[in-house]
Each structure stands twice: as C-alpha cells, then as structure tokens.
C-alpha cells in the first residue's frame, strides 16, 4: 500500500514529510536488505518524478544516515522541525521526546541517540546487526499482538511548553499510536495537535495540507 502511495497519490503533492518509524528497525545504511532496498528504490523513484521527500528519525529507525538519504533521494530532517509555509506554520516531530512520564523509554532514547553509542553500534559486524534487526522485528510483532500493550502519551505540561517554544504553531507528530486531533489552549491561544495514524494491512492514512485546511485522507489497499 505504501509503495502504491509513493507511485501514485503522493506524487500529486509538492512535498511529502515522513515523521519517523518509516522502518520497523534500521541497524545501518550498509545492510543489504531486499525489503529495505525496495522501499529505498521507491522513494528514489518518487523523488526523481519531482516529489520532494523529507524523512525524520523515529525511535525505531534512529540510525538512518546520509548514505540512506543519498540512495533514497530524500532529505533528513531534525526533530523538531519548524515548517513555515506562506499560508500557515507547523511544527513537526516524531513525538517520543515529549513522552516524559515513560522514564524507562526516555533512558533508552538518551542512550541510542548518543553519537558515540551509534558509532559503536555501526562498528559491529553486519551479520550481528542483521540478526539484531530480525530480533527487534520479531519482538515488535509479538508486542503488537498483545492487546494489553499501552503506549505512553505526551506529557501535557511539556507539550504546552513545546507549543510556546514554537510560537503556537500547529503541531503534527506520531509515535503514540493514538491518532486524534487535540485542541490545546496555551496562554489563551488555541493550538491544534494532530497525531498521525498507524498504517496496517487494511488501511493507511496521510495528512493533506491544501493551502487552506489540514485533513486526514484514508488510504486503502486497492486505492
């Protein structure tokens, strides 16, 4: 469904912003993985057709590097990223940095985002990293099947501070698996927060900005 989206609907836009966790796991740009290569090639084809593509690191693909960016023809974005358009201002983020009540995750995030830790990880043999990637994918699939899994949400006070820091721009993020549109009132100013939906085998979703309004667009396997 995502490959069909890249080959069709996405190319009707000027730009596509992917806000992290494009891949379930990424253990180095030098891993030769047919599944990942297919997606990388599809991104390159969409870019070659004129679509500007921007990708942000997520908590699963935090190791995406410049080699991948060059191969895919995309631009890696910092997190957060202020997107100022002629008509409106947005702030984009993966969202995990604001899940401050999940202390175990924040400790993990600080470790894996450390440049020295990433350097040591990339220095490990490719075979070992590939096995690690398979294990992470297996563990993630098992967790998804467990309906008792509860994902942390953004901390309200930290979110309000974040909105202040970014001039009350409309906030778009993912990570929490809780697709919704929230109304925040910060210092008397109404600010919208849009949470991206997960993609599943039977449906996906993209946010569409047409210069006036932001809307959710449902994507189906055969659409």
From TrEMBL:
Enzyme Commission number(s): 3.6.1.54
- Tell me if Membrane is a UniProt keyword of this record: yes
Q: What is this protein called?
A: UDP-2,3-diacylglucosamine hydrolase
- What Gene Ontology molecular function terms does this protein carry? hydrolase activity
| PANTHER family for the chain | UDP-2,3-DIACYLGLUCOSAMINE HYDROLASE, UDP-2,3-DIACYLGLUCOSAMINE HYDROLASE-RELATED
Cofactor(s), by name: Mn(2+)
Quote the pathway field: Glycolipid biosynthesis; lipid IV(A) biosynthesis; lipid IV(A) from (3R)-3-hydroxytetradecanoyl-[acyl-carrier-protein] and UDP-N-acetyl-alpha-D-glucosamine: step 4/6
Write down the species: Dechloromonas hankyongensis
Top enzyme class of this protein? Answer: hydrolase
Q: By which gene is this protein encoded? A: lpxH
Which amino acids does the record list as binding Mn(2+) 1? 21, 177
């Amino acid at each position: 469904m995502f490959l069909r989206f890249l080959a069709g609907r996405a190319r009707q836009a000027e730009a596509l912003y992917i806000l992290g966790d494009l891949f379930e796991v990424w253990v180095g740009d030098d891993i030769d993985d047919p599944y990942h290569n297919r997606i990388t090639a599809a991104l390159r084809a969409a870019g070659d057709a004129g679509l500007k593509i921007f990708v942000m690191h997520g908590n699963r693909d935090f190791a995406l590097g410049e080699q991948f960016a060059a191969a895919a023809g995309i631009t890696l974005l910092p997190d957060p990223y202020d997107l100022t358009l002629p008509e409106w201002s947005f702030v984009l983020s993966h969202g995990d940095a604001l899940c401050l009540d999940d202390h175990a995750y924040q400790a993990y995030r600080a470790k894996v985002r450390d440049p020295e830790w990433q350097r040591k990880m990339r220095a490990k043999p490719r075979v070992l990293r590939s096995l690690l990637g398979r294990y992470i994918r297996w563990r993630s699939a098992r967790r998804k099947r467990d309906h008792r899994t509860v994902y942390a949400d953004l901390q309200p006070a930290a979110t309000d501070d974040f909105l202040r820091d970014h001039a009350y721009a409309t906030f778009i993020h993912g990570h929490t698996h809780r697709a919704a549109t929230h109304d925040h009132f910060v210092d008397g100013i109404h600010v919208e927060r849009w949470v991206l939906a997960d993609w599943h085998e039977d449906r996906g979703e993209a946010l569409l900005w047409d210069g006036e309004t932001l809307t959710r667009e449902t994507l189906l396997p055969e659409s």
